[in-house]
Amino acid sequence: MQTFAFYSYKGGVGRSLLLANAARCLGMLGKRVVALDLDVEAPGLHYKLGTAPDPENKPGFTGGAVPYLVATAKGAKNPPPLQEHMVRLALPQGAAGWLQLMPAGPAPRGIYWTALKQLRQRLRFDEPGGKGLAALLDLHARIEDEMKPDFLLIDSRTGVTELGGLTATALADCVVCLLVPNQESVDGTLAIVEALKASPRHTRRGSMRIVPVVARTTGDLATEGRTSEGIKRLVELGEGRAGNGKKDSKPFALPHDSALGAADKVVGGDKKASGCSPLRKAYLELFEHLFPHAR
Amino acid sequence: MDVNTLNTLVSSAIWRAEQLEDLGLEAARSAWVEVSSLEEELAKAIPAEQAEGRIARRGAVRAALKANDVARAESLVEQYVPDAASGALRKELRQAIKAEVNDLSERFPHAAKRYKPTDLLRYAKLLLERGPFLLAA
Asked: pTM for the whole thing?
C-alpha cells in the first residue's frame, strides 16, 4: 500500500477535489483505493465523492474516522469492524478497481461534532504516552492489513495541526503539497516542506516524496520575484515536472477552471467530462507523475 | 531544600493532581509531571536503603506514568535501578514500564506489528516537544 497525503498550508486551494479526482482515476485504472478524510475540523471529502448526508437528515451512515478513533480510544478489546466505517463508492461502468471512502464522519450532522468533542477529550495526538500516535498508526496499518488497497489517499488538515502533522510525517510515503501562487501560501508551504525534509523517519518506510502543486493558476507562472523564487525552491526540495530535485524543473500547475471549480466536479477517469479542459489535462499529467505504475 | 519541605510539597502536589484527575481536567497531566519532579528531588535527598527513599523513587516513576510520559519514567528507572537497593523495587519499577508498553501493544495490535513501542514513545515525546511537523525548535 502506498500512502499519499494531500496537504495545503492554506485552505481553498482544491486539495480535496484533487484527491477525489485522483481516487476516481486510480479506481478506473483497476486499482484498489481507500480515501481517508482526516480533515476532521472541516470534513468535505464525502461531498466531493458523492456521499453527502441525506438533506432531510435521516439517520443513515454514522461511521467514519472520528467515530472509529473514539471507539478505539475507549480501550475496547475488540476494535470496531473497519467496514462499518467505510463507504463503498460506485465507479463508472467498466472500472476494474474499487474505491472506498472512510469519511471523517457524518458531518455536518450534530452527532459528528459530538464525536469530535469526545475524540478531543479521549485521545490527544501529541500526548507523550503515545496513544494518539499509536491509534492513528494502528488505523493506517489496519487498513493495509484488512483491506489490502494499492493506494491510501489521505485528505490532511490545512495549516499546522497535530493531526495534519502526523498524517504527513508519520503516515505518508508521498506528500502532495498544494499552494496558490501568492507570497503567503508559498512562504507557509516552504516552511512545511523544509520541516518535512528534516523530519526523522521514525515510523515511515523509506524516504518521503514531496510533490508541490501550484493550484488556481491563471496564465503562465511568473518567473521573477519572491513568490517565483519560493516556488523554484519548493521544486528543488521536492519533485517537479522534470523529476526529482532538478533545478530547472517546472512545478506542477493546476489552472483555474471556473466551470469545474465552481461545481466541485470530479472528472478523474471520466472520458466524456470536460475532455478539453486544461485543468483535466493538468490533473492527468500530475497523476501520471504521482502514480507512474498505475496504468 | 530540606526533606520536610519537599515532603509537604509532594503531598499537596499529589492531592492537587488527584483532584484534577477526578474532574477529568487536562491540567491533571502537568500536575503529575510536577509530582514526579518533586519525588525525584526527594529521591536525590534520601538514599534507596531507606524506606522513604524507595517510596520517592517509586513515586517519581509512577507519577511520570500518570502524566503519560513513559520516556521520562524509563529514564528514571534507568537512573534508579543501579542503586535500587532491593531486588523487589528494581523488579517493580521495571514491571511498571513493561505494563505501560504492553498496554500500548495490546490496544493497537496492527501498529505493534510494525513499530516497537519504545520507538513510538520516543517519537510521541518528540512530537510533544517540537509540535506539529516538528516545526518548533
From this structure: 0.84
